[in-house]
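dumping this here before i forget
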Amino acid sequence: MKWTMKPLGPIQTNCYILEDETTRKAIIIDPGESFSIIQQHISQNDLKPIAVLLTHAHFDHIGALDDVRSAWHIPSYLHKAEQDWMMDPDKNGSSRFPIIEPMRISPVEHLIHQEQHLSIGPFECEVFETPGHSPGSVSYYFSEDHIIFSGDALFNGSIGRTDLFGGNQEQLLASINDRLLTLPDETIVAPGHGVTTTIQKEKSTNPFLT
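structure:
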């Protein structure tokens, strides 16, 4: 599996485009904004999107979702705890940012009800429930590729904020310690903002965890 990071929008939220090099099928993780950038990458690389995975439903992670689904007629996945956030600007946070129009996004096609294995076309991953930044935050672990897409749970040298609606720092720290830091040290952490890191590095140097 090949993957590409695309920082999008005013908060530079990382959208990830995963591609299977044999079939050219692709999965899009967190299409937060700037649909034209996503579309350009898909077109230039002759990819065939088949699904959208959302780590959570904050506005900067879902902003281009309707455009993505309309362009390629593909389903999206989100944890059930945030199913009503898509249409609620107060919950998805768009009402808190003056530069953002209040955001109302169509409901997702697939709700994640628990930790599970996902098989979508040629892609296989494990869904971990990692709440704390938000109640329905999840992380997607691709074990064969040694990478986890952690959303806004764990960052390079930091952790997600917990002062937004539904945030809980104690819960977030438990999620990180119980679900993320137990992964192999060499696992790449692909976060919702900023640069990638590894589990080993965060165990050793993250000031919120040491």
